[in-house]
Amino acid sequence: MTVSITRRVAIPTIPEMPHAAPAGERIRELAGSTMGTTWSVKFVGSSTSVQTVHRMIPLALERVIAQMSPWESQSDISRFNRLALNQWQNLPLEFGRVMASALRIAAESGGAYDPTMGALVDLWGFGPSGSRVSPPPPDEVARRHRECGWQQLDLDTSARRLRRSNCGPLDLCGIAKGFAVDLVAETLGELGIHNALVEIGGELRGNGVKPDGSPWWVEIDRPERSTTDVAAEPILVALHQLAIATSGCERGFTRGADHFSHTLDPRTGWPIANGMMTATVLHRSCMEADGYATALMVLGPDAGVDFAVKHELAALVLFRHGDAVTELTTPALDAMLA
């Protein structure tokens, strides 16, 4: 028996006409591994362009890892985390871009997103030190929480340098993957490829169209356990000059009846327990979508949607209230729904 699935369709306002796919070219597909996950790229190009793209994408991803991976001891972020307090460190261009965005979202969200959570991320078993199966001692959580706070960072954008006044280490994992998507898309553009879909670990950015003129269609992620609980139909998005990032809380560990999400609340130092299941943001920048989605998860359903409305974000949140799963969308997303 064939089951018919009804979907809602979200089509963004197109600020400019997409580049027409060159005659005779078709969709090429490449994939690989990076940042503990996978990447894939679909692009409209010739057979001769495949080799160049296959060489350039890993180079772009390696720059992100070399600058912003806390798992690499010699990365720029690891060296900064070992630097003495109040000492300036010069930042590479990409690192500077991500830090400027991270600090702006931290300020806008009142610290719901915070790039200085490295010690707490590690303490809860979601960092380089490895996983854990039970929560850490509350006094240790409190101690490391006192070391955090985005206000301790001083970013000199003109000189592209950074320093800190407290010992909370940086962790940009809530935004760097989205930036990597943007960087790959920009790299393709520099190669003259303007019709492409870039994906890293489920976060995507689409530019242009397919050879037949249709957009790059993607469906907004839903956690598996919610698929039969939400009354609303799934949403299919046309990704033209648009990125999408979803943050969730399924990763983590369970102790007894309690699930401890990998999404930590920077304001308490503890995993979120606000009923949130996922937060999805559509934005021209995948980096921005990534950071904002994390902030919405921490803010929770009501404050998160209020924040998204205030900042004119196209967003969808799924949250559990008792046994029911509820979906909320913002006016900016509603305006895209056909």
TrEMBL record:
Source organism, top-level taxon: Bacteria
UniProt KW Metal-binding keyword: yes
Family under the similarity heading: Belongs to the ApbE family.
Xref: InterPro entries: ApbE (IPR024932), ApbE-like_sf (IPR003374)
UniProt keyword list: FAD, Flavoprotein, Magnesium, Metal-binding, Transferase
PANTHER family: FAD:PROTEIN FMN TRANSFERASE, THIAMINE BIOSYNTHESIS LIPOPROTEIN APBE
Reactions catalysed: L-threonyl-[protein] + FAD = FMN-L-threonyl-[protein] + AMP + H(+)
Protein name per the record: FAD:protein FMN transferase
Enzyme Commission code: 2.7.1.180
MF GO annotations: metal ion binding; transferase activity
Annotated organism of origin: Nitrobacter vulgaris
